[in-house]
């Protein structure tokens, strides 16, 4: 949070925010951009590699990285070049282009189970389409989603995203995320706790003939970062098959980030349908639904619809194509680097916290993780995430920001690094984290 007492000069950000609020409700077009800021968000101006600069000239190492989209950093030269080149041809046409085939081929070569691919523009659209496809091919209406998981802004998935009340673990409440979602839609969603196969099976039994799909973030990344325990993803797949539902992995966060083939490759479990966005484009707006050929081929005239003016627009495809090319270089060495640097950062943060006497669980994988301020050895589901200490996180965030490291102030967001981050960045982050954890200790006490 940026408080009046902050040592950071953010006068221009404050001025812009006050101006924005007169024109744009709450001042922003995506409410997460103000979540957790006490006074005003910080307005950014420029990005280069792992670094960003705000409108007051403050410089930061970026650990938010466009909410995980900027897998190759800000303004990656290869992506910039591809975009400039495409600008010489066209930005949008409304007819198919060859580059669509190029990106589909690249995705296929990286991702297990991506027999076929359809392009759209955001993670929200991708999960909306995947759910519709699942409903159409199974002829069923209901979906199972997990408590604390986020799949975008459409009504079908906006239940129990960040509920304050959760109910019993055997029968979690189904809480709409915001007003305006029809009660009829609520009927189509069943909420299950994460990492609890027994409750999931109970739900599947109860709605035996009416679950079209189980939709899961294979690594939960919107309640901090929560890993699947043991064989949990495999169990999801087996349960989906047993109860004749499709398994949808929402890899909007994990796709092209945790491995070249995303969480499917990382855990060795494939889903029937998979959604991508964020790191697919490396900073341009693009998303995709991919999956099994027999399912994907049900999309077509007179069958399941799919459309959009900006779907597969040449500009985004050009950016995505260059982005995937950069990731593929030197036999995808980007991924070992992301894991190695991110792993060092995770380990270093845990050590600094311990040295300061602050209890934390740093959890996730190198390219995607979060720090929970908790006495628990590990956070295993949303309910446990809710018990983490928000004041401690706020103090940590404030100190890191003042020392030049940009994190999201909302503890349910996460840390993502990029191929542009360096060992020097990691060293710098860890050296300032040591003070940040000591400041947390002073705030939260023994
Ligand atoms: C797992 C997941 N799914 C879907 C979405 C929605 O994507 P978008 O913001 O591109 O609509 C997000 C966004 O954060 C996400 O993290």
From TrEMBL:
<keyword id="KW-0663">Pyridoxal phosphate</keyword>
<dbReference type="Pfam" id="PF00202">
    <property type="entry name" value="Aminotran_3"/>
</dbReference>
<comment type="pathway">
    <text>Porphyrin-containing compound metabolism; protoporphyrin-IX biosynthesis; 5-aminolevulinate from L-glutamyl-tRNA(Glu): step 2/2.</text>
</comment>
<keyword id="KW-0413">Isomerase</keyword>
<keyword id="KW-0627">Porphyrin biosynthesis</keyword>
<protein>
    <recommendedName>
        <fullName>glutamate-1-semialdehyde 2,1-aminomutase</fullName>
        <ecNumber>5.4.3.8</ecNumber>
    </recommendedName>
</protein>
<dbReference type="GO" id="GO:0008483">
    <property type="term" value="F:transaminase activity"/>
</dbReference>
<dbReference type="InterPro" id="IPR015422">
    <property type="entry name" value="PyrdxlP-dep_Trfase_small"/>
</dbReference>
<dbReference type="InterPro" id="IPR005814">
    <property type="entry name" value="Aminotrans_3"/>
</dbReference>
<dbReference type="GO" id="GO:0042286">
    <property type="term" value="F:glutamate-1-semialdehyde 2,1-aminomutase activity"/>
</dbReference>
<dbReference type="GO" id="GO:0030170">
    <property type="term" value="F:pyridoxal phosphate binding"/>
</dbReference>
<dbReference type="InterPro" id="IPR015421">
    <property type="entry name" value="PyrdxlP-dep_Trfase_major"/>
</dbReference>
<dbReference type="GO" id="GO:0006779">
    <property type="term" value="P:porphyrin-containing compound biosynthetic process"/>
</dbReference>
<comment type="similarity">
    <text>Belongs to the class-III pyridoxal-phosphate-dependent aminotransferase family. HemL subfamily.</text>
</comment>
<dbReference type="InterPro" id="IPR049704">
    <property type="entry name" value="Aminotrans_3_PPA_site"/>
</dbReference>
<dbReference type="InterPro" id="IPR015424">
    <property type="entry name" value="PyrdxlP-dep_Trfase"/>
</dbReference>
């Amino acid at each position: 949070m940026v408080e009046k007492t902050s040592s950071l000069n953010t006068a221009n950000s404050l001025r812009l925010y006050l101006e924005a609020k007169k024109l744009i409700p709450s001042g922003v077009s995506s409410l997460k951009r103000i979540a957790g800021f006490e006074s005003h968000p910080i307005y950014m101006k420029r990005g280069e590699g792992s670094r960003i600069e705000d409108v007051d000239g403050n410089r930061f190492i970026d650990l938010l990285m466009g909410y995980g989209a900027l897998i190759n950093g800000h303004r990656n030269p290869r992506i910039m070049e591809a975009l400039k080149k495409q600008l010489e041809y066209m930005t949008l046409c409304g007819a198919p282009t060859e580059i669509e085939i190029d990106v589909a081929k690249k995705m296929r070569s990286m991702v297990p189970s991506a027999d076929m691919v359809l392009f759209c523009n955001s993670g929200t659209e991708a999960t909306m389409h995947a759910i519709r496809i699942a409903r159409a091919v199974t002829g069923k209406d209901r979906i199972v989603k997990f408590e604390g998981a986020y799949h975008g802004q459409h009504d079908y998935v906006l239940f129990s995203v960040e509920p304050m009340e959760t109910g019993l673990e055997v029968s979690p409440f189904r809480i709409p995320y915001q007003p305006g979602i029809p009660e009829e839609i609520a009927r189509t969603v069943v909420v299950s706790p994460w990492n609890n196969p027994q409750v999931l099976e109970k739900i599947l039994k109860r709605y035996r003939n009416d679950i079209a799909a189980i939709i899961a973030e294979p690594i939960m990344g919107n309640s901090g970062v929560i890993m699947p325990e043991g064989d949990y993803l495999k169990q999801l797949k087996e349960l989906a098959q047993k109860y004749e539902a499709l398994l949808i992995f929402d890899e909007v966060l994990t796709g092209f980030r945790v491995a070249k083939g995303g969480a499917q490759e990382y855990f060795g479990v494939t889903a029937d349908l998979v959604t991508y966005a964020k790191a697919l484009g490396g900073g341009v707006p693009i998303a995709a639904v991919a999956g099994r050929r027999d399912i994907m081929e049900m999309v077509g005239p007179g069958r399941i619809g799919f459309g959009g003016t900006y779907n597969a627009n040449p500009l985004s495809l050009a950016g995505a194509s260059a982005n995937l090319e950069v990731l593929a270089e030197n036999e995808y060495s980007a991924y070992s680097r992301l894991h190695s640097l991110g792993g060092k950062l995770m380990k270093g943060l845990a050590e600094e916290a311990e040295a300061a006497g602050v209890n934390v669980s740093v959890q996730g994988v190198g390219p995607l993780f979060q720090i929970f301020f908790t006495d628990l050895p590990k956070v295993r589901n949303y309910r446990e995430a809710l018990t983490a200490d928000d004041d401690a996180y706020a103090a940590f965030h404030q100190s890191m920001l003042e020392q030049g490291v940009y994190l999201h102030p909302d503890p349910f967001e996460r840390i993502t690094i990029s191929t542009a981050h360096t060992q020097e960045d990691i060293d710098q982050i860890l050296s300032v984290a040591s003070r940040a954890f000591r400041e947390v200790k002073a705030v939260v006490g023994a």
